[in-house]
Fold this sequence. Notes:
Elements: H1 7-17, H2 19-39, H3 46-160, H4 162-269, H5 280-291, H6 303-333
Helix pairs in contact: 1-3, 2-3, 2-5, 2-6, 3-4, 4-5, 5-6
Amino acid sequence: MSQQLSPEHHESSFQGAALPHFVKSVSSLLLMLRISVRAGLRELEDKDVARFKEELEIAEREAEQAATAAEGLGDVIDGDCEKLTVEYGQVSGERKRLAANLQEGQSKLRSLEMDRELIQGRLQTAKTSLRQAEDTLRSARAKAGEKQTGRDVGIGLSFLLPCVGIPMAVAFEKERQLRKSEVDIASDDRSSLKSSISQDEEQLKQINSQVPELYSDMNGVTERLEESKAAELTLKESRVELAKLQARMRTCCQYLSTFQGKVNALKTQSQHMYNMRPLLPFLEEAAVQAQQVPDNEQLFNNIQVHKVVGDLKALIPKVKDLLLSQDSTDDYMK
């Protein structure tokens, strides 16, 4: 995963883009609280009104910029989550393709090994049969030669002793033809076996050349498959971490948006201010919202944030006291 897609990069971006505006807004809110506590329920001096409105302008502007920056970063994170999801799908698909290729290669290798074993067994049997066929052929040729000689003798005698030579020649010719047929059969058997052996040896040669190549291909596929598995796992873990950040960012955006709304309400109420009475409830709401920083969200883990929020928490009770005092005064006036 690229650096731009990492949760750490986005956290750093949030702390650089949104937090400074948030700190400035809360700092201005702090000054307004101090003005309120110092003035109490009396009418404000012009300089206090001017300072209050000045800080309120800053608080509103900075709260808006903080919320806008957070929202923009949230959109970026949403987009990055989608990118990671697409990338994960692609890597997962590649991993499945490689796994299928490996399985196919293993199946082909098993088939080749079985074919090789079968051919080797067939060759062994065929070579044994060939030796037997050659022995049979030699024997048949020897017998055929004997009958050829007997026939020739019979033919020779037929000139001297026709009554003996002619029958002898006829008998040996029949035997010669029979033995010749046996030679032809044995010769055909030998030729057939030789052809079969030649074909099997050629097929075995091809298998012997294919097996190492297939092993090499499978080793490459296995290596790429392991790399793909590692990449898939890394992307999955990154997607989970980014999804967690996405949820935290949404919480932060909601918090900043609510804070901005409270400051806007205070701004609206302060249009015709002359004392703090009408503003105190809105000022308290803004301060209370500001102090409710999502502590479990590490995005707000910043020294300046802790400081201004800590100062805010220290002043809120004094504002509450003013509100109680105001309520008591109102009750007394009744």
